[in-house]
Structure formats: C-alpha cells, structure tokens
Design brief:
Blueprint (H helix, E strand, L loop, with lengths): L1 H7 L21 E5 L7 H12 L3 E5 L7 H9 L2 E3 L3 E7 L5 E4 L2 E5 L13 E4 L6 E3 L1 H4 L4 E9 L4 E3 L7 H10 L6 E9 L10 E7 L7 H6 L1 H14 L22 H31 L1
Parallel strand pairs: 1-2, 2-12
Antiparallel strand pairs: 3-8, 4-5, 4-10, 6-7, 6-9, 9-11, 11-12
Length: 290
C-alpha cells in the first residue's frame, strides 16, 4: 500500500542491494531503509556514508528487535543515539487495576516542515518502539541540525529491562520516570540553511525507531502515518511545496453482526424480501379485479 501511494506521487521505486554495487547510483535521490533485520557490513556502511556525504537523502525506519550496531553508530555520528530500551505505559483499566501496554501513542511536533501540518496530531505505533536521544550540541560544529519530529505521550517510560515480566519492577521503573516523554522520530540535516525560504543543497535524513507503523494493516487504521511518510519523502526530495495531507485511503465498508443480527438478516433475505414483490403483485391483481 505504501509503495502504491508513493508511486502515485510521481516517485519511482527501485530495489537496491548494496552488496551488488560499487557505489549508490547517482540517479537515486533517496535511500529508504525499512526495518532492517540484520546489520550492515563495513563495506555497505561505507557506501551509505559516501552517499550521505554527497548530499544524499535517507529514510531510516528501525526495528528495535533487530540488532544493528553499525547502523546505530552511523546515526550516533549524526547526533541521534538509538537507545536499547522499549517504550511502555501503564493504563488504568479499573479503580485499582493497571494494564501494561507496549504500543505507543505519540504526537507529531510542528516545528519541522515535515510535520507542520500534523502538529499535535496523534498516531499509534504498534509493536516495539525504542527511544531516541537527540544531542544537537555535540554535532553543531559539523553543521548538523537536529529536529525532533515525534514524541511519545505523557506517561510513557523507556524501560531497559524490557524482557522482564515482573510487573512490580516495571511499575517501580515507571514511577521513577520523571523526565520529558521520549522522542521516537527525528530529522537530521547537514549543510543547508535554517531559513526555509533559502534553498541550499544539503544532506538529509529522517529516522523513526519503529517500522511497523507503515505496514498495510497499520496504514488502513491510521491515516496520520501515511501523512507523515508522505511529508518525510517530499522533504527528503526537496519538494516542500508538495507537503500536505495525503489523500484518504479507500477502505471497504464492513459490518459486524452478532448472532441476533445474523438471525434478523436471514429473515429479511429469506422471508421479507421475497414477500414484498408478492404483496405488491397481490395488490395490483386485486385492483385490476375490482
């Protein structure tokens, strides 16, 4: 679904295997790395760095369950640290009952051209999501600017012992969390200008610490995710003027019926619907007879 939508915005997709090329082809404007399950080799990382240094554009959607230390190290060089944790929140389900959920509800921050029209809009990020630490002061001297894009809602905490089933321990960790809600998405730009009106060539990268939110099932439930990806791709391609609300996803109309509803539907189909033309026919026959 995502591929079809992006191609509908006059963008061509091309599969790229870094193992088979000596350099990322110059005609490729943006490289998309979606939920990698294995880490990159040293050679592949060098190709990615070369592309970045030549004003390349990269979209990275991480799967926290996969171990990608070399890719994480590349992002760390650019001022974004991918933390080995998982976002969680305790939700009250009763007067004294709490339930732990690992699905993340987050909102978009409106300070970037990518998310300006999505400011404070909320979206769900299913599955595991890790936190991102942005360190702009560390990379400012390299002319790298960081912009937070997505922040978890209040109450979420980053748990490092995320495989634990000890509810008491997890709740204690949640109670100790007093900082700002974690970030899960950011934009990186090297070079360029902070003034949106000034067009200067630059390297650009968007990173999100969750890759499941663009799967077909998630996109059909959450239009905001598609809007965000559309804005990210257009920003990476320097098409800021095209950033807006993405077209609505066509969805089939469905009904859910319980047993009583199904019984009533059967009566309508088998009895009432055939009965209607019979009644009409009887009325017409009677009028003609009279």
């Amino acid at each position: 679904m995502l591929k079809t939508f992006i191609e509908g915005e006059n963008i061509k997709f091309q599969e790229l295997n870094l193992f088979d090329v000596g350099a990322i082809p110059a005609e490729l404007k943006t490289v998309m790395i979606i939920g990698p399950q294995y880490d990159f080799s040293d050679r592949e990382m060098q190709l990615l760095r070369d592309f970045w240094n030549k004003q390349g554009r990269i979209l990275v959607l991480l799967d926290p369950a996969a171990k990608t230390p070399k890719l994480d190290a590349f992002l760390n060089e650019l001022g974004v640290r991918v933390n080995d944790d998982r976002l969680m929140v305790f939700l009250r389900t009763g007067i004294q009952e709490l339930a732990l959920t690992r699905d993340v509800q987050a909102h978009f921050l409106g300070d970037s051209p990518i998310t300006k029209r999505l400011a404070d809009v909320r979206a769900l990020f299913f599955g595991g999501t890790s936190s991102l630490t942005l360190e702009p002061d560390r990379v400012r001297a390299a002319n790298i600017r960081l912009e937070p894009l997505i922040q978890a809602e209040k109450g979420y905490f980053a748990e490092t012992d995320y495989n634990s089933d000890d509810q008491a321990k997890l709740q204690a960790d949640a109670n100790r969390n007093s900082g700002a809600p974690p970030m899960i998405g950011a934009a990186i730009e090297k070079g360029g200008s902070a003034d949106e009106r000034v067009q200067v060539n630059s390297s650009r990268l968007v990173v999100v610490s969750n890759a499941t939110f663009i799967q077909d099932k998630a996109l059909t439930q959450d239009q905001q995710s598609l809007d965000f990806i559309s804005g990210s791709v257009n920003w990476l391609l320097s098409r800021e003027q095209l950033i807006g609300i993405a077209p609505k996803i066509p969805r089939p109309l469905t009904f859910t019926l319980d047993e009583n509803g199904l019984r009533s539907l059967r009566w309508m189909i088998l009895v009432l619907m055939p009965l209607i033309p019979a009644v009409i026919g009887s009325v017409v026959w009677w009028q003609r007879r009279v």
